[in-house]
Amino acid sequence: MEDTAIRLSNVRYRWPSSPHPVIDIPSFEVARGERVFVRGPSGSGKTTLLNLLGGVAVPEAGTVTVLDTDIASLGGARRDAFRADHIGFIFQMFNLVPYLSLIENVVLPCRFSPLRQQRLAERGASLEDEARRLLEHMELAPDAHDGRSVAELSVGQQQRVAVARSLIGAPDIVIADEPTSALDADARRLFLDLLFREVEDARATLLFVSHDARLAQAFDRSLALADINRVAT
Amino acid sequence: MTVLPVIGLTVKSLKNRLLTASLTVFSIAVSVMLLIGVEKTRTEARASFANTISGTDLIVGARSGSTQLLLYSVFRIGNATNNISWKTYKALAGRPGVAWTIPLSLGDSHRGFRVLGTNADYFRHYRYGRKQPLAFREGAPFEDVFEAVLGADVAQTLGYRLGDPIVIAHGLGRESISDHKDRPFRVAGILEKTGTPVDRTVHIGLAGIEAIHIDWKGGARVPGMGKSVDEIRARELRPRSITAFLVGLESRLGVFAFQRSANEYRREPLLAILPGVALQELWDLMGTAEAALSVVSVFVVAAGLLGMLTMLLSSLNERRREMAILRSVGCRPVHVFGLFVAEAATLTSAGAVTGLALLYGVLLAAQPLIDAHFGLFLEIGAPAAREIAIVALVFAAGTLAGTLPAYLAYHRSLADGMIVRT
């Protein structure tokens, strides 16, 4: 087992309708357990990079290796399963499924990942107990929200639920895409503290993408998407 | 494994859109109720129609069309163009192989209900439904010339009881000016309900028919010749002619031989028909209307399913984010497809089951009314195989319709991936 969590080499990607590539990354690596900040304004190919890492898109040239697996070598269904097993995603906002309860939202990835379920079972934790534990760690009281729609939560609370969801069943990698841009300063600080603590606890690799360079100092390493992506503007 | 992860989401997702979902279910339910209701009524009407008369091998009347003969002799609709003579009746009734005959004499009415002249054999041999004999709710067959037996509807509609006097009119008008007021009949018996035209018939003896026509010539009363009831009783009232007669044979094997001999009868032009065959012919005449009704209700179901399709399609846009979230946690596009198909299947099956429940509710409530007004008894039992087949077909059609939004959602979630660009 190598100690690289993510490795991109000579990756190029073009939208089907466009003659120009949006991604052209000769080399990019993230070590296991590393917490990396990637600064990227919108339009810099950020979304495409995330889709490539999540296996939702495959590069037209080069290789995307996640946890020693060449993503492009997997079929569509295997890529979805791989994502479910190994990567937790946190997005800018609207992370929650409106018709599911707090707990149901947190355990959602386990529906699609037998591996996450198995990991929890090995630790002797039920899905619901683990969801409660994570929510409490994220300073949320799951029972206080019983019977209410998750849409009633504040944006800051919703983002913390998303962290709990990304971490359930101990995935290897957490990828966060502008998770704090909808939060005010206090909520942002709380969010980052809790995220860091939980990622550390889970010994997960963290890839954090944001346009806000002020956040970079808390990370092991920080880089700009423009430094690695040759087509970035 | 393919659909399993999203199965639990279906009901929760629909619950989230409770109002539109329940309206959709309701519109499917109403359409299913209508379709199965029409189907049930059709089958029951056909069965009840075919059961109007049973156990009778042949109906014999003056030569005309078989449908016309059936209509006036069994359904009391329309009139005979000609009568057959009493002599001919006697001759045919006396043939070897004939087990029984019932003479029928029509042409008079009582307050809108047809009057049938017959004899005691009617109550002995007439069968309807599954060879059920006529039963008396009250009283007994007529014995005297001026006694009548009422069908159940006649007694109920006009509020007659045993012993009440009634006036039989000559001709068929409701308020006939030629009421035979001077010779009233007494109600001697009231029959149980049969769900057939018998319920709407006033039965009197053949002698009674003759009695009310004494002193009448050519449809008008001969003035100054009013005979008293006692005078009439004293006379021998033998009918000169009847309208038709029913024949029961000792063996069904003789049916065609008897039919041929009646049809070729020399002294008088006659027509003998097999009731089952004639009923079938008559029903087929109404086949177009029946088919039209079915087609309409099929289209109503199609409209219900289109409503569901509209609901699912219009939700596609607002659910893009939801699909993106599901994709990010590992949901495959085929799961998205499955989610939408499962929603369509859930809506349709909920609609179909609710429709069946509604139908049974309506049947329970309306059964006595339909029975009373149309003489159609709708049996309430477990759903017939045909009804279950309809429900299954609606379910299949709804699920199939669901593949359209499912396919669109599948396609979009492939394109959107985990992030919806707005």
What's the total count of β strands of chain B?
17
Architecture per CATH nomenclature, i.e. the level-2 architecture of the domain at 35-46 and 75-220 in chain A: 3-Layer(aba) Sandwich
Radius of gyration of chain B: 32 Å
Task: Count the DSSP helices of chain B.
Answer: 14
How many distinct beta strands of chain A?
Answer: 9
What structural category do the secondary elements of chain A indicate? Answer: alpha/beta
Tell me the structural class of chain B.
alpha+beta
Could you list the spans of chain A in which at least 5 consecutive residues all have pLDDT below 50?
Answer: none
Q: Mean pLDDT of chain B, as a whole number?
A: 86
What does the radius of gyration of chain A come to? 17 Å
Number of helices of chain A: 8
List low-pLDDT spans of chain B: 173-177
**Between the first and last Cα atoms of chain B, what is the distance in angstroms?**
32 Å
Please tag this protein with its features.
heterodimer; A: 233 residues; alpha/beta; Rossmann fold; 5-stranded parallel sheet; 4-stranded antiparallel sheet; 8 helices; 9 strands; 36% helix; globular; B: 422 residues; alpha+beta; 2 domains; 10-stranded mixed sheet; two-stranded antiparallel ribbon; 53% helix
Topology diagram in text:
The complex is a heterodimer of chains A (233) and B (422).
Chain A: E1 4-14, E2 21-31, E3 35-39, H1 46-53, E4 61-66, E5 69-70, H2 76-86, E6 87-90, H3 102-112, H4 114-122, H5 127-137, H6 155-167, E7 173-177, H7 185-202, E8 205-210, E9 221-224, H8 225-228
Parallel strand pairs in A: 3-8, 3-9, 6-7, 7-8
Antiparallel strand pairs in A: 1-2, 1-4, 4-5
Helix pairs in contact in A: 3-4, 3-5, 3-6, 5-6, 6-7
Chain B: H1 4-16, H2 18-50, E1 58-62, H3 66-74, E2 84-85, H4 86-93, E3 98-110, E4 113-118, H5 121-125, E5 127-128, E6 132-133, E7 136-139, E8 147-150, H6 152-158, E9 165-166, E10 169-170, E11 185-191, E12 201-205, H7 206-213, E13 216-217, E14 220-221, H8 229-234, E15 241-242, E16 244-249, H9 255-263, E17 270-273, H10 275-285, H11 287-318, H12 320-328, H13 333-374, H14 385-416
Parallel strand pairs in B: 4-12, 8-11
Antiparallel strand pairs in B: 1-16, 1-17, 2-15, 3-4, 3-16, 5-6, 7-11, 8-12, 9-11, 13-14
Helix pairs in contact in B: 1-13, 2-11, 2-13, 2-14, 11-13, 11-14, 12-14, 13-14
